[in-house]
């Protein structure tokens, strides 16, 4: 335990408040014993935070045991009793509630440190489990000696030691502890690794835990370097919810992939685990595709859209099928509107429409596109499909169905605002008595 004590002496500041996650087993009880021996030296205030998982008969007895130890040693005792009735995926649910509880206790006492009793053998098990099921650099590294959060540090001082080291320490120093029999139940994944993998590795090298710690630290260095480059890449490629594909595709493949993963985390938050490697690979293929317009459906009714040089998310089924009567003004969104104006000096612009009221049928309407739509384009013989105009003008595919189209009551298309005007539009030197202007802040 020499390395653990040296580590604590370097980390802990005098007059510190610290929270120890304590179970009553040899790991956390040995760590408590070490902290008690440092208590007077650093004038420490120790809060023992215990989670009663409430699934074994012994759970309440363990809680009482820890409580008495705390009273004996003048430590504050805090506990919570879990009530997880659905035992499916119990380990993950319990872990989430456990760390929420620890975080709350840290906040309550404004502690600088949260300590857990994870040791070297735990690190080996964690790394092997993550390698087996698949992960990323952060996952393959297992867990850190020190994890920094906004107001406190989570530290794992026993990472240098093994279970055998801990048991020897308890024996030499007469440390009382309890044994959780569920730690031997091979229904739990970690227990199988502990029983079947660790003995083999330790037979090959009795200090294998130090090799795994070195491996973890090396991956942490690589991860820090990659994260720095990823954040730099994000500033160039991601802005206001859109990805600039030209910039993204210039990146190294690994950084490009990490940028995509970051954006997915931003979009999915706590539901990120619903995505898998296949989703990532599909999105990478879309980014590299030469097709200008692509939409794919993703979990939770999200749609990933590629529009020419941009990539972004939208929610499924957001098409707008409303029709509006066009009189003085129609507000289409917070960024675009069509307004009636009295005069303008602009002579030629697809953002201005001049009409002779005697040639059209009222009321005028603004509506979305229909499949059969065509327009008699001004200064062009014959008609042209609206669909083809959208393609020629490179209107993003996601906007085509909702693009505002101005028609009269006979359903004749008068105007595709910002794109094309019909034969009904008048030149400035012709007679007209109606002027409409299309304003779109995105276009500006």
Structure overview:
The protein is α+β, with helices and mostly antiparallel strands. The protein has three domains: 2-218, Rossmann fold; 240-315, Uridine Diphospho-n-acetylenolpyruvylglucosamine Reductase, domain 3 (2-Layer Sandwich); 324-440, Phenylalanyl-tRNA Synthetase, Chain B, domain 3, CATH 3.50.40.10. The chain is built from 15 helices and 22 strands. The protein has helices spanning 2-11, 26-42, 59-72, 90-109, 120-133, 137-140, 163-172, 189-196, 198-204, 208-237, 245-248, 253-268, 277-288, 386-392, 397-400, and strands spanning 17-21, 45-52, 76-81, 113-115, 146-148, 153-155, 238-239, 242-244, 293-298, 302-307, 310-315, 324-326, 329-331, 336-341, 352-355, 364-367, 374-375, 384-385, 405-407, 413-416, 420-421, 434-440. The strands form five sheets. It has a six-stranded mixed sheet with strand order 3-2-1-4-6-5, with helices on both faces. Helix 2 crosses helix 7. The chain is elongated, with a radius of gyration of 33 Å. The relative contact order is 0.08.
Please describe the topology of this protein.
Blueprint: H1 2-11, E1 17-21, H2 26-42, E2 45-52, H3 59-72, E3 76-81, H4 90-109, E4 113-115, H5 120-133, H6 137-140, E5 146-148, E6 153-155, H7 163-172, H8 189-196, H9 198-204, H10 208-237, E7 238-239, E8 242-244, H11 245-248, H12 253-268, H13 277-288, E9 293-298, E10 302-307, E11 310-315, E12 324-326, E13 329-331, E14 336-341, E15 352-355, E16 364-367, E17 374-375, E18 384-385, H14 386-392, H15 397-400, E19 405-407, E20 413-416, E21 420-421, E22 434-440
Parallel strand pairs: 1-2, 1-4, 2-3, 4-6
Antiparallel strand pairs: 5-6, 7-8, 8-11, 9-10, 10-11, 12-16, 13-14, 14-22, 15-22, 16-19, 17-18, 19-20, 20-21
Helix pairs in contact: 2-7, 5-8, 5-10, 10-12
